[in-house]
Write a structure and sequence with these properties.
This protein is of the alpha/beta class and 575 residues long. The chain has two domains: 356 residues, 2-Layer Sandwich (Nucleotidyltransferase, domain 5), CATH 3.30.420.40; 197 residues, Carbamoyltransferase, C-terminal domain (DHBP synthase, Alpha-Beta Complex). It is 41% helix and 20% strand. It contains 22 helices and 22 strands. It has an eight-stranded mixed β-sheet with strand order 13-22-21-14-15-20-16-19, sandwiched between helices. The longest helix is centred in the middle third of the chain and has 27 residues. 52% of the residues are buried.
């Protein structure tokens, strides 16, 4: 029987795991339309458990204490904190930041740990049981297992990697008193070798640097990574005092002292950014974290003699660092869990409890993450009829071929098919698609839909055979956009709109796992000579990825896009 996993802090969500595999998973933001939604994921649980609540074996609740415990007790506090990160409410004064930091220092490392574990487990279990009771009395009676934050991250990576034996590394901002861990996964069991205190955090360093550049903590770190490519090489020694990896101590260490992300951002502004331009600052930060993380990976490969690497935690959304790790000669194979941030904790916690109770785990690497809702053509037609004002629509016999024809004509297409993807990447079912060979398409998509800054690139989808030819550093088929590849010079013009200034692209390398999307790329290859497309998520700037037909139609009506292919229907705005 399946395990219900719950994560109820920021980017809350739920997952069902059974027989060693993910059966379904979704995040609350897709229902509420509030990006990175905070709080108990009631809609997600209701969707996943509909018609099968009596079959749920147990509940796995990710994240025991610290911010998660405070969030469970006072959800409004975590929403306010998220509002600060998103710049939806005014930033506090320096005095207020220092006052808040006093409390932050007391709880950051969560010492003594056993007190936090006991109190957090008891309080969290009681609160969760009560909230489950509002959904279904049967769910409220299930046994609840608490799963520590970084154990949930490690489980999400290991149990979906397909590795019998793996070196499992987690890195993020902070959770349950830690900012990262190193573990061995072997025959389904996870044994922790090292843990890094939350007061020394690569993730918080990177997030604070993002805030120092007037971007949003927890959302815009990818922009900082993108901005770094616009600089000449730069090193800033002061970053070592904020956080660095000490190989002798096997620890992330800091000379600066514990500071919350906003206060650390102010320190960076005053002492580092004031002496550098934003581009060189971004480069220095990116180069610094790359060096620290690669040092961690190399040391622990040497210590364990394990060469299969599984990664999770929010820091590993940094695709350039992931690319460099995969290219290390010591690394045999790399797997990054597709929903690596805290939004993926529910599936990690459920995977851990599923193995603990049933002793089974997925011995093959996860092949797709289409775990969300899907809609029949009848449901799509009903939504189109409800929303018919301002649009016209008709059936198409071959949606993939028609989409490829329109893309080949250099049209921008909203593409909605099949089951929704799990996590932050659009992988060909909830996508905005365009021709990758026209550089102007970046500007067009930005102006009518996405509103990204000039330095943030778009991703790509590419057939596996084309990827092998077009990428100079192709190693493995990355299905989930968790890494980057360099486009060969002679092929760069074919991928310019879906590549960065440093000639890297963040690709979804497509095999057989999505038949209709593969057909689209094959038809496009006949039209253009290349089985590749610019692919970005189907959503308006500031909103979550579209879940339902109503969301897709809303996006068509409320952006400058004019064409949507949804199921077997082609939809256009009325002129």
């Amino acid at each position: 029987m399946p395990i219900l996993g719950i994560a109820d802090s920021h980017d809350s969500g739920a997952a069902l795991v059974g027989n060693g595999g993910i059966m379904g998973a979704i995040n609350e933001e897709r229902f509420t339309k509030n990006k990175n939604e905070v709080g108990f994921p009631g809609h997600s649980i209701d969707y996943l458990c509909n018609e099968m609540r009596g079959e749920i074996d147990a509940v796995a609740l990710a994240w025991i204490g610290g911010n998660a415990l405070i969030s469970r007790l006072f959800p409004a506090w975590d929403r306010k904190r998220r509002g600060l990160w998103r710049k939806e409410i005014p930033k506090p004064s320096r005095f207020s930041l220092h006052a808040t930091n006093l409390v932050y220092k007391l709880i950051q490392n969560q010492n003594p740990r056993y007190v936090w574990n006991i109190c957090g487990s008891r309080i969290s279990t009681a609160i969760t049981r009560k909230r489950l009771g509002h959904l279904d009395a049967d769910l409220a009676n299930k046994k609840i297992y608490m799963v520590e934050h970084h154990l949930a991250h490690a489980s999400s990576a290991y149990y979906n990697s397909g590795f019998k034996e793996a070196l499992v590394i987690t890195l993020d901002g902070a959770g349950d008193g830690l900012s990262g861990t190193v573990s061995i996964g072997e025959n389904g069991r996870i044994k922790r070798l090292a843990e890094f205190r939350a007061s020394s955090s690569i993730g918080i360093l990177y997030g604070a640097a993002t805030v120092a550049c007037d971007m949003r903590y927890g959302e815009d770190e990818g922009k900082l990574m993108s901005l770094a490519a616009y600089s000449y090489p730069k090193r800033i020694r002061l970053l070592n005092e904020i956080c660095r990896y000490d190989e002798r101590k096997r620890q992330l260490v800091s000379k600066l002292g514990t500071r919350n992300e906003l206060l650390l951002a102010e320190y960076m502004k005053d002492h580092i950014l004031s002496n550098n331009d934003r581009e060189s600052f971004a480069y220095a930060v990116q180069a610094h974290v790359e060096e620290q993380v690669i040092a961690i990976v190399r040391q622990w490969i040497k210590e364990t003699n394990i060469h299969n690497i599984a990664l999770s935690g929010g820091f590993f959304s940094n695709v350039i660092t992931n690319m460099l790790i995969e290219q290390l000669p010591e690394v045999k194979s790399l797997f990054v869990f597709p929903h690596m941030g805290d939004g993926g904790l529910s599936s990690g916690a459920a995977s851990y409890v599923d193995f603990m109770l049933n002793g089974k785990f997925n011995r093959g690497q996860i092949e797709n993450i289409y775990f969300g809702p899907s809609y029949s053509n009848a449901e799509i037609e009903a939504a189109l009829k409800r929303s018919k004002r301002g649009i016209e629509f008709g059936e198409v016999r071959d949606p993939a071929r028609r989409a490829a024809e329109l893309i080949a004509e250099n049209r921008i297409i909203l593409w909605f098919q099949g089951a929704m993807e799990y996590g932050p990447r659009a992988l060909g079912n909830r996508s905005v698609l365009s021709l990758p060979s026209d550089q102007e398409n970046r500007n067009r998509i930005n102006s009518i839909i996405k509103q990204r800054p000039y330095y943030q690139p778009f991703a790509s989808s590419i057939l596996v055979d084309d990827a092998k030819k077009m990428f100079s550093d192709y190693i493995s088929q990355n299905r989930f956009m968790t890494g980057a590849n360099h486009v060969r010079d002679e092929h760069y013009s074919k991928m310019v709109a879906a590549s960065h200034i440093d000639k890297t692209t963040r690709p979804q390398i497509l095999g057989e796992e999505n038949e209709r999307y593969r057909e689209l790329l094959l038809h496009l290859k006949k039209e253009t000579g290349v089985g590749a497309v610019l692919n970005t998520s189907l959503n308006k700037h500031g909103r979550p990825i579209a879940m339902s037909p109503d969301d897709a139609i809303w996006t068509l009506k409320n952006t400058g896009a004019d064409t949507l292919i949804i199921g077997n229907y082609l939809v256009r705005k009325r002129k």
